[in-house]
Amino acid sequence: MSNLHFPGLHPEAARWLAREKKVVGVGIDTPSLDAGISSEFGSHRALMGAGIWGLENLANLHLLPPKGRDATLAGFLLCQIRKKMAIF
Fold first, then answer.
1. Which residue of 9, 32, 42, 58 has the lowest C-beta tally within 10 Å?
2. What confidence score (pLDDT) does residue 50 get?
3. How far apart are the first and last CA of the chain?
4. Is 1 inside a domain boundary?
């Protein structure tokens, strides 16, 4: 899939988030946590390997409050966002 072109979270930034910021989840407004040209999927590996979940294709992120809301995905309560979540 090397013909995909969109930005993503750099794998080193993903490792930093996991190591230094102790986030529970990462949300991004692109189709993948990794850049479209990625074949290694380093950001996925770094985050999922640390037990950090990722949400992709998010929209209207500017409307989200900084904290204190529930996140619902496909009708199931995913988590209560009362801890840190990095949103890009």
1. 58
2. 95
3. 23
4. no
* Residue 22 in domain: yes
pLDDT at residue 9 tops 60: yes
- Cα separation, 53 vs 43, in Å, equals 11
Does residue 74 form part of some domain?
yes
**Predicted TM-score of the model (pTM):** 0.72
46 domain-assigned: yes
Give residue for tokens 């993503």. 8
Number of structural domains, the chain? Answer: 1
